[in-house]
Amino acid sequence: MKLDRLLAIVVLLINRGRVQAKDLADTFEVSIRTIYRDIDTLGQAGIPVVTYQGMSGGIGLAEGYRLDRNVLTDRDLASIVTALRSVSTSHTNVARELLMEKLSSIVPEAKNEDFQADTNRFIVDYSLWTHPEALQNKLQIIEQGLDQLRPVTFTYCSAEGAHTHRTVDPHTLVLKKHSWYLYAFCHARNEFRMFKLVRMQDVTLAEGHFERKPVNPQDKPWQQEWATPGNTVAMTMRFHARVRHIAEEWFGIENVIPDGQGYYISQVAFPEDSWLYGFILGFGADAEVLEPLHIRDEIRQIAEQIVQNYTAPSQT
């Protein structure tokens, strides 16, 4: 609907400052001419849209313009409550619980039944199946560091099994593929790093305070670092039909191609480390690395060692 697009354009301009007309057209999948007509419509409605010329130009709003809070619909409030409830499944937060109560109280009593149905339409449960307490404690300590701008210290176990003591300035908590990560500025490495929470031990708040460095989470800087060509190795993998569904979950259904011989081929790229070897071996005999050859050799050597482990008599 045009009205929804107009409101969305205003929200984007408030949050991002200046935006190119082409970027707005791409976002809403309309022509640039349509975007300019929308801008004219907003101006006629009294919203102070400004067009800036030059290399750093674009479309923006007059400084200080804000939307009235009444612009939020009941469906908007339900979406916010659903998101807050989903985050709360991983760890409790009193302020978050109170915010959900406040938002729910805004809805008129006559619409409360529909509101509850909307908030229960789907549930995103981030909690672990077993022993969630350790993760909850880590998240709570890290959130304290985020709120108070205090460094966090911990012992970190790498994928290779090396233990190091780290002091970091926490900037962003990231939930990626069912696992929580901390994106933080590491004092020892003097750069931003990603730390997997399950690999962190003895997490505590450190003394002192830090100033946040410019990081835009919407740009997903951790994803950019991970996907840098120099950090990844391109592989061709073949999967048996038995694990096709698992391959599709990892790589996307469009990247799991039948080879005409009952198997499926995927072109994938991952950082090469012990995690990658374990990931490949997790498919058992239902997956094979076709290329590159050095990873085939590494997997074969690990598999041979596994055979030796189970061939030798157990120590009792």
UniProtKB/TrEMBL annotation:
Keywords recorded for this protein, A-Z: Transcription, Transcription regulation
Pfam families for the chain: HTH_11, WCX, WYL
Organism classification: Bacteria, Bacillati, Bacillota, Bacilli, Bacillales
Keyword check for Transcription regulation: yes
Protein name: YafY family transcriptional regulator
Superkingdom assignment: Bacteria
UniProt keyword annotation of Membrane present: no
GO molecular function: DNA-binding transcription factor activity
Record domain HTH deoR-type: where: 2-57
